[in-house]
Design brief:
4 copies of one chain form a homotetramer. Chain A is built from 13 helices and 14 strands. By secondary structure, chain A is an alpha/beta fold. Chain A has 2 domains: 109 residues, NAD(P)-binding Rossmann-like Domain (Rossmann fold); 209 residues, Dihydrodipicolinate Reductase, domain 2. In chain A, β8 and β9 form a beta hairpin. In chain A, α5 packs antiparallel against α13 and α9 crosses α13. Chains in contact: A-B, A-C, A-D, B-C, B-D, C-D. At the A-C interface, β13 of A face β13 of C. β11 of chain B pairs antiparallel with β12 of chain C. Chains A, B, C, D: Keywords: Oxidoreductase. Chains A, B, C, D: This is Inositol 2-dehydrogenase. Chains A, B, C, D: It comes from Halomonas litopenaei.
Chain lengths: 328, 328, 328, 328
């Protein structure tokens, strides 16, 4: 697969690493609004910087990986679809639900994977598999904890669409994937406890969401923009026959026992370390989907549905009431 | 302290054990609506069965421990207060908030401890202490998980006032105690996932609550009437400098490593084993309050306030909206 | 059972607590070489100080608990046996193997329990039970780690008979109990790493022993007189179907997660906390043996055999060779 | 670095994977006594099969990785040294100590790394670093547990030089590396508990070793050829200020809590999974040594010294006595 990477920023570089490690995928081009950025990354990974139009027109390019700024996603998705490229797009599709829906419809005939990287994490995959095998009987309650080590720059927060669309979007997707039945209602509560500037920008930095599915399953999501001990990524699934807990991961299992107690390492610091393997598997899933003509693990409609839950959460937080997903 | 135990049922027997183990408290009388029950328990613990009126009139009796059915609490509290006895009363005061409030006012001049046993648990006490010492900086999010091993008999459920008043009442109290500032709003969602008969009786068996405090702290409570692995009692406090986790306790730390993995014991099965030490400390706190003329760790107004949150949760669940505590 | 406690020192007080908590055992007398010590302890536990001769002559006394200095054990055991008392004796019987053997023979017709308290620990008992049930198939290797928090006073060390007789004696007994077949050979190596004064007194403070049983099972014991994190008491049993690990115990399971990592409590500090329940069960086992006319969990011959292994270890350390138990 | 891989068996393939993943090392040739084996591996990794003489004569080849059968090591090492190649050699150098010493002397002027892969494991490296930083004060006792999941084929055992030279050699090296001072004495005890055929072949399958260093540090090593739960690789370092424990590693931290208890995954099954990262780092250390002209983390004299301890252990086991390393 000859793949063009659109976006040479931090997340673009993460994907470039996965591409370099994949035996069947070649980084055929790097595109960025800042040509120097594209050139630097291209040089580091033995590829070349190219123009966006060039890439869409080149029949040799099989696929594009869209990791540019959110505002460009819709345009690039639609152009890539027209050009007959397979697409792997970073989340979110867009900040606007209606526009996302329209795009999803327009690219419906193409292979369009969405980069919900956590679905590819070995531990969460194992959790999903065991739920499917009935390890805990019938799933009843799902609790997702997701905390970033540090808040992003304030400028980023302002353009992010807010915590629900930018950060909790991953957890909404994880909830949908694991609950495995329609989510019917959403309630959200949030506070600004980490940085008052985030509140002044109209956003929250700490939030809790409660959702209910068609059969009455309950799901909570807890987010914070700051956890001093690192990237806190845990999931607890409770059911009629037991409980599964995905625990935080550390670099090593070295334990120190001293006067002050028994000390193990802090969780991995951020998503690059925590989800390195997930990024590799995500690319491979995209490649296999393309090769086998099957659907990817997460597709563009999953992006739309996660955004819909984020929208519902936003309304709920403002109105202090249960929001039914069908309203949105 | 000469103490009369009112109520010779299961929980009465738990208290009798603590009384027997306390060097300064004597079980001076046992009272029960069923005289045989009182006699059996009195015989087992070297005490004697007596009439309720007798107990209130006897100037030798210093204190009463009210562990009879909920419907009797208000009457016994008020009579005990009139008779000048110190009181340790099982939760809830009553199922009706207004009546509970009225009673709390009437006995306000007496020593009246409420049996929120979990406040006396060594692990939760240590958690509270460390919060007070600033171990995690400023508290931001509190998550309480509380699951019973098995649902109570259906008849019990019907008269219990519902999951929020009967079971989650402990968690409301724990939340109030740990959050350490006024709770201003409550949202509740519940389902019947364990036993349809509970739903037919108008109650839920699985529930999630989200609360917010005056300064914006967020608190979730998750309850289930059934956890096949035992009594699931965990608390996670998250703050600006870290996280404290009160984990489930087991009888031993023996670990088996075999083909299927690394296996440690299931959590203790039920409250008798899990909170045995808490019951002993609760009685001692009551005794020390009486001896030193100080307030007990949990008093009757704590019982009123926990019931108020339960009432708010009930309204929220029915109306699908945030309920402000001041409404109740 | 009317029991006289001989020895009102630290370990005597531990036993007095267990006696006070046992519903069927009465502390009928306290004896000590220092009458004031006996009187203080007797007063604290509602008993009375008496003379040693008095105790042996009093037909009302059913049993004696010998917790006096090691040098007195043999005399008291033999007099107690003559007087028809049941005996629970602290370890070691004596520092001299031949004398211990002779005494064991002389009291062979009496109930004589030896205070190997660890056999009564709930966790080690569960380990023993699971070995018996074949949980790990055939036992192949046993590894015992046993470290004190701090060295005893130097004067104590000088009169203790050395690390193998004083400290490792418990581990020799544990090894015999768990290996469940004759130990045929012993090798010992030791160093003085904690306090040079212990070395100057002719003893070691750090030691490792390797033993082999008749069928070839291997057992290691590792001792240190000092572990800054507390009382380190672990056992690992490895077999054809898996491994059992008895882990250190802590007061609570409270966990702190912060910048520096994930911190759980240090192990319990010393034997009083770690083995409190074991001491209670040991007394109850003694009482039940007496009442039912059965053998106690650890008897006087177990004391002789553990001392024999200590003797073999001492020879091995001096001679740098495998010592066969039959040599000793 | 242009590298020739000598030996296309199981371990050769492990190294080929690391070479493929290293950006600066090229697999320039594959050599094997069975030309088809060399060709298959060469094809899989985009290299070519070549003759051994060819490789030594080719001035383009910078280095050889010797992963052929033990009997060939000495010849290849000496020829590679003569040809001016850098060498990374699998352990052991040879089964014969004198021959190994002679070879080590002959290649002393060349870069000759020995493949003690465990020194490169991230967890053991972190342990080594923390010892160096004084995390546990002065090291006093080291305990190494090392168990294979299953015994190798009997034919392999027969030619392996025995458990001490073939399996425990890694632990002897780890002990030398971590103890960081001369080991002066060795005692070994072993049994045949896993498979009687191993005993009939004159070897043991379960063994324990005790060593002492110049300053009196004590070290135990425990080996078994079979652990049903997987590859058991643990190290415990105990010192004046605490303890460090390198624990077994699992694929994920997913935990199941059910009726039977709290279950985490079994340790990784074998060395390929457990030490995958160590193999990558080992190759990189070899490359960096070559590039920078510095000594590798483990060199040929480390191989000689580990073999010397194995020899001492063999003598000790046969003679039942402490063997001083200077004797060997």
């Amino acid at each position: 697969m000859k793949l063009a990477l659109i976006g040479a920023g931090r997340i673009g570089r993460v994907h470039a690493l996965s591409i370099a490690a994949h035996p069947e995928v070649t980084l055929a081009a790097v595109v960025d609004a800042y040509p120097e950025a594209a050139e630097t990354l291209a040089r580091d990974f033995g590829s070349r910087a190219r123009d966006i139009d060039d890439v869409f027109e080149d029949p040799e390019i099989d696929a594009v990986l869209i990791a540019s700024s959110t505002a460009t996603h819709i345009d690039y998705l639609e152009r890539a679809a027209s050009a007959g490229k397979a697409m792997l797009c970073e989340k979110p599709i867009a900040l606007d639900l209606a526009a996302s829906r329209a795009t999803a419809e327009r690219v419906a005939q193409s292979l369009c994977a969405l980069a919900f990287n956590r679905r590819h994490d070995p531990q969460f995959s194992a959790l999903k598999d065991q739920l499917g095998q009935g390890r805990i009987g019938k799933l009843e309650t799902l609790a997702i904890t997701s905390r970033d080590p540090e808040p992003p720059p304030l400028e980023y927060v302002k353009g992010s669409g807010g915590l629900f669309r930018d950060m909790m979007i991953h957890d909404f997707d994880m909830a949908r994937w694991l609950l495995d039945e329609p989510i019917v209602s959403v309630y959200a509560s949030g506070s600004c406890l980490v940085d008052p500037a985030i509140g002044e920008a109209g956003d929250v930095d700490s939030a809790v969401v409660v959702m209910k599915t068609a059969s009455g399953r309950l799901c909570t999501i807890s987010n914070s923009r700051r956890a001093v001990y690192g990237y806190d990524q845990r999931i607890e699934a409770f059911g009629s026959e037991g409980m599964l807990q995905a625990q935080n991961e550390c670099d090593t299992r070295l334990k120190f026992v001293g006067k002050q107690g028994q000390l193990e390492e802090a969780p991995r610091w951020f998503f690059l370390e925590r989800y390195a393997e997930a990024y590799r598997r995500e690319l491979d899933d995209f490649y296999q989907s393309w090769r086998e003509g099957r659907a990817p693990r997460a597709g563009i409609t999953d992006g739309v549905e996660a955004l819909r839950l984020a929208e519902a959460a936003d309304i709920s937080r403002r109105e202090g009431r249960t929001v039914y997903v069908e309203e949105v």
